[in-house]
Design goal:
Oligomer: heterodimer
Strand content of chain B: 15-25%
Helix content of chain A: 25-40%
Low-confidence stretches of chain A: 1-6
Strand content of chain A: 15-25%
Number of strands of chain B: 12
Number of helices of chain A: 13
Distance between the termini of chain A: 22 Å
Largest sheet of chain B: 8 strands, mixed
Structural class of chain A: alpha/beta
Radius of gyration of chain B: 20 Å
Radius of gyration of chain A: 21 Å
Shape of chain B: globular
Strand order of the largest sheet of chain A: 6-7-8-3-9-10-12-11
Low-confidence stretches of chain B: none
Mean pLDDT of chain A: 87
Chain lengths: 357, 307
């Protein structure tokens, strides 16, 4: 995997990104020093609880931050046919005209709220094509039909003239994906694309996105809190907590060799159909309030393995081999050796056995 | 096993008249029993009628037909005043969205104490205070929280308030309608553990409605799989997970994502289309595989699926 990556092109790189929001209660530091790279044809999953800053990160990429939010520091570089463009330095208006929807497209959580109930499906798909690609009406229509077929909607002629309320939830999400793909984007951002859908349909939508990604060779960023979804689609995983990426690595490193106690907690709190244990592991407490200044490691108060230094100094990012990076003092060479919880160890052993056997 | 069920639902039907000529059959003749102290999980996709079932049982709707026996009393028909009071005190519900189900203008203490006041259970204000504080402690909040408003809490804490409100009446049956779906993964685990602890301590019975089969497995003793208003398969948790018969159950099980990337990447979920397979639920009969495990199918279907 890694040797292949060197040949691949970078399409997006985020460096030391800081974003804060002005609220009536003070300044909320929602994103603190995020660093991330996206390569062509690769799928990244950003995992975290609500409020950990995963949506804010991608909204910054799209230039659609809320009006009280601002980028304090860092860069978001988009590589467009060899040119490097810093999206942070651009005006939101310019991003909207040239990139948002055209080269970087987004699929939102709830298909009912992202579609216009008063427009036919066909017109909604044609809208970005006419806006961005400057083609004739007939060409746009043909393209829209192709897209409907691509996302697996049967009988596109009939669906073209229908309204969103006439479609089921899964169908609507397919239409949203068709709109996102309408201008052949290089990056597709999926913000919890399946949370509002049923389990049975969820799997189909994920398979569809994967299929299209393979056909068109685009890069995908998933935002999700469901580790099952991550396991299904991602090549590379970034775990976020309180506005920071606390662990990142390729999928095998994160799932079979997690190092950060928060990742341990996330993995073990996920119910597993195969285990017989009668008690779920739960991470105690809840997310910190980012209005207050975070002293040391933000996760320390909830961390049973926290060291003294965790409460004082923020951990730097440690390289633990491969593509695996961890922001935890436990990975410091002088730190005491701490093993992951027994229950999780067993589960991972079992998963590895399943793979080999 | 001579146990008397706490709740016995027989051939419950709940129709909604949409227009003069069109009626939605949300729940179309389902039967199940829940025994004291156990957790019965009801799973199915959206639109399968699982929430409607819960709401009909607690009589937020008037059932079209069928009988609901709760603790020996018939509650599926028109209720007498005494039965209604009994039902309201002994059956409680936890709702899906912890933000929407708490009145934003009431303090936590008033939210929890509302039922106590309406049914005049406590004699003095002091007794109410004691009860509210005790229940807050039980769900992992402290008594300082009683004077706050719902918006001052996080999602997980709000769901705890919802649970406290249900439990303060000391109910025999709690209906949890997607009680954890709106919460974060790590918080879901906290709430599920809390519900389990309370069950062990107080012997509460749960009807647990959810679409997430993996979570249902953790909490349920028995599971009923609901599809389009029919229970297509029911059995103990082990029977459903180890030996599913109905293709719909199989497709639901196969849709559960596994946190194992190497396996998950190549796995394809099974699909089930009732019309393509030509299954008509109204024609099906109940086929028993064991005392607790049965499937809704015609004879040919049963032979095909089971073989």
């Amino acid at each position: 995997m890694s040797e292949k990556k060197d040949k691949k092109d970078r399409v997006l790189s985020i460096r030391d990104l800081d974003i804060s929001f002005d609220t009536s209660n003070g300044v909320v530091k929602a994103i603190r020093g995020v660093r991330l790279d996206l390569f062509k044809g690769e799928t990244i999953a950003i995992v975290g609880e609500s409020g950990s800053g995963k949506s804010v990160t991608v909204k910054a990429i799209m230039g659609i931050l809320a009006s009280n939010g601002h980028i304090d520091n860092g860069s978001i570089t988009f590589f467009d046919e060899g040119k490097a463009i810093d999206l942070v330095k651009m005006k939101p208006k310019d991003i909207r005209y040239n990139y948002c929807g055209k080269k970087i497209a987004m699929v939102f959580q709830d298909p009912m709220t992202s579609l216009d109930p008063t427009m036919t499906i066909g017109r909604q798909i044609m809208e970005p094509i006419l806006e961005h690609l400057k083609v004739s009406h007939q060409e746009a229509k043909n393209r829209a039909m192709e897209l409907l077929e691509l996302v697996g909607i049967e009988n596109p002629q009939k669906r073209f003239k229908q309204y969103p309320h006439q479609l089921s939830g899964g169908m609507r999400q397919r239409v949203v994906i068709a709109i996102a793909l309408s201008c052949d984007p290089q990056i597709l951002i999926c913000d919890e694309p399946t949370t509002a859908l049923d389990v049975t349909i969820q799997a189909k939508i994920l398979e569809l996105i994967k299929d299209i990604q393979y056909k068109k060779n685009i890069s995908v960023i998933y935002i999700t809190h469901d580790l099952g979804v991550v396991a299904k689609v991602a090549d590379y995983v970034a775990v976020m907590y309180a506005g920071k990426i606390i662990e990142k690595g390729n999928i095998d490193e994160i799932f079979y060799d997690p190092r950060h106690p928060y990742t341990w907690g996330l993995l073990s709190s996920m119910p597993d159909v195969d285990t017989d244990s009668h008690r779920l592991f739960a991470i105690p407490g809840s997310c910190p309030n980012l209005l207050e200044r975070v002293e040391g490691d933000a996760f320390a108060p909830r961390n049973p393995y926290a060291l003294k230094i965790d409460f004082k100094v923020e951990p730097p990012i440690f390289d633990v081999g491969g593509q695996h990076r961890v922001a935890s003092w436990l990975c410091h060479p002088n730190a005491p050796k701490v093993e992951m919880p027994e229950q999780l160890r067993k589960r991972i052993d079992k998963m590895l056995k399943e793979v080999r056997g | 096993m001579e146990r008397t069920p706490l709740l016995e639902v027989t051939d419950l039907k709940q129709y909604f008249k949409i227009t003069r000529t069109y009626t939605t059959k949300a729940v179309d003749g389902i039967s199940f029993k829940i025994y004291p102290g156990e957790t019965y999980g009801l799973v199915g996709e959206s639109g399968s009628g699982k929430s409607t079932t819960g709401r009909s049982i607690i009589r937020l709707y008037d059932p079209t037909s069928g009988s609901i026996k709760f603790d020996g009393k018939e509650i599926g028909k028109k209720l007498s005043k005494e039965d209604k009071a009994y039902l309201r005190m002994n059956m409680q519900m936890i709702f899906q969205d912890p933000m929407a189900c708490l009145n934003p203008r009431m303090k936590v203490k008033e939210i929890i104490a509302e039922g106590l006041r309406i049914h005049k259970i406590c004699k003095s204000e002091q007794e109410i205070d004691e009860k509210v504080n005790a229940i807050l402690e039980k769900v992992g909040l402290s008594k300082e929280h009683a004077t706050r408003f719902p918006h001052q809490f996080s999602g997980g804490q709000r769901q705890r308030i919802g649970i406290a409100r249900a439990l303060v009446m000391n109910p025999k049956l709690v209906i949890a309608d997607e009680a954890i779906s709106a919460l974060d993964v790590s918080i879901q685990a906290q709430v599920v553990n809390l519900m389990k602890d309370i069950q062990q301590e107080l012997g509460t019975t749960y009807l647990f409605i959810a679409h997430d089969l993996a979570m249902v497995k953790y909490i349920s003793d028995r599971i009923g799989v609901l599809h389009l208003g029919h229970i297509v398969e029911t059995g103990t948790t082990d029977e459903i997970f180890q030996d599913p018969i109905h293709p719909y159950t199989k497709s639901l099980l196969s849709a559960i994502p596994h946190p194992n990337p190497k396996v998950e990447k190549t796995r394809k979920a099974l699909t089930y289309d009732k019309n393509k397979e030509g299954v008509d639920y109204t024609k099906g009969k109940i086929h028993h595989l064991s005392d607790t495990h049965y499937v809704l199918a015609t004879d040919e279907e049963f032979a095909k699926w089971h073989g």
